[in-house]
Amino acid sequence: MLRVLALLLLFLTGINGLGKGFNGLGGDLLDHFFEATSNPFVGLVIGILGTTLAQSSSVTTSMVVAMVAAPEHPLPIQSAVPIIMGANIGTTVTNTIVALGHVSRPDEFRRAFATATCHDFFNFIAVAILLPVELLTGGLSKAALGLTEFVGIRGGGGDFPNPVKTITSAALRPVTELISWVIPTPRLAAVGLIVVSGVVILASLSLLVRALRSLASGKLQIYVARSLDASPWVGFLTGIAVTFMVQSSSITTSVLVPLAGAGILTLRQAFPITLGSNIGTTFTALLASMASEPQTAHFGVQIALVHLLFNAVGILLVYPVARVREVPLRLATWLAAVAVRSRKVALGYVLVLFYGLPAALVVISR
Fold first, then answer.
1. I need a surface site. Which of 1, 262, 305, 329 has the fewest CB within 10 A?
2. Residues 6 or more apart from 303 whose CB is under 8 A from it?
3. Closest listed residue to residue 39, CA positions, set 71, 70, 87, 81
4. d(CA 77, CA 43)
5. 85 closest CA partner among 132, 135, 129, 127
6. Non-local CB neighbours of 334 within 8 Å, separated by 6+ positions
């Protein structure tokens, strides 16, 4: 447990350092980046590719929180929302790759691939519905702002007592002093701090997930097994609980894939657990917002709540209505049947969905 706490502190220190690093780059450089991300297609692509490369939506969303809550030159909320949505799509690549491990056994592969890709289709449907709504109305960001103010977190620094920020700032100070001594140029020092902080975030979150997984490995299998014969809502809560414990939706969904391949779990039993994992993974961004500067903490909390609301509203739009709920399941079943007949389709699906499509969106945006 002490190891988990130490890694958690290291992760939050990395988030703090990332925010300070972006702040140190200066407004003109960040303005060029923010001009690019103001295009929602580009933001969506950044979220997809960043998460695909990092193999973790938690890394992407935590970095977005740090950029949104940067003290002097924050990433605008409206530009951050598409990145958050793209992260939801990118995180599904892990369990789809896991499903490819069953490709030599047709029946197993069909079940595993359908279970993996139902997550893909659900996230794409949620983005297709909610991104245009957000661009037209700003509904998610406004609702998140309302929740942020409701719990009493506002700008100015006086309303958000944050001992985590104090601790991480003290831990970060020797690092920033060392980087400034080695690299006297302020902007280059800021770049150095961003690189170091990014490495710290990736390493600490990876180690944290492993530590939590080892602590919860036995319980993870038990919780999933118990949810099989219960109602869908129990499966949904199981997905939230397991993902919260291991701080990774990829682990939760990747556990479901081999169970489905072996015939222990059906596609319809796995689906609510998968949706629950979408909610569970949002707690990492909320946690990252604790490392924000007091005067800008409300921005970090707001974008973290956008992530939570996006997944919650997506589930409410898709799951309760039987005909709508069947859409991602039927698409996943159809694609799995096609992939069994041609392995090239399965491989092409991964390459096109997570790499080719983002590239096409960039071309369209230009």
1. 1
2. 64, 65, 68, 77, 80, 81, 84, 144, 285, 289
3. 81
4. 11
5. 127
6. none
Q: Contact 231/72 with Cβ under 8 angstroms?
A: no
Using pLDDT thresholds of 50, 70 and 90, give the confidence band for residue 156: very low
Report the run of H or E that residue 235 belongs to, with start and end.
helix 232-246
Q: Are 44 and 37 in contact (CB under 8 A)?
A: no
Spatial separation of the C-alpha atoms in residues 337 and 344, rounded to whole Å: 13
| Residue 49 CB neighbour total at 10 angstroms | 18
pLDDT at 160: 47
Cα–Cα dist 83/89, whole Å: 10
Q: What are phi and psi of 257, to 5 degrees?
A: -60, -55
Structural domain spans, the chain: 2-365
Q: How far is CA 148 from CA 76, 298, 304, in A?
A: 16, 7, 10
Alpha-carbon distance of 307 to 52, in angstroms, equals 18
On the 0-12 / 13-18 / 19+ scale of CB atoms within 10 A, 149 is: middle
| Residue 15 near residue 335 (C-beta atoms within 8 A) | no
Q: Which two tokens stand for residue 269?
A: 């039993």
Buried b (16+ CB within 10 A) or exposed e, 310-322: bbebbbeebbeee
* 264 contacts: CB under 8 Å, gap ≥ 6: 228
Read off the pTM: 0.75
CB 93 within 8 A of CB 52: yes
Residue type, 127: V
Closest CA to 99 of 268, 297, 340, 282: 340
Q: What mean pLDDT, rounded, does the chain reach?
A: 78
* Tens-place pLDDT, residues 267-310: 888 899 899 988 988 887 887 777 666 666 778 888 889 999 99
Q: Which of 283, 292, 338, 275 is nearest to 123 (CA)?
A: 275
Which of 220, 225, 311 has the alpha carbon at shortest distance from 270? 225
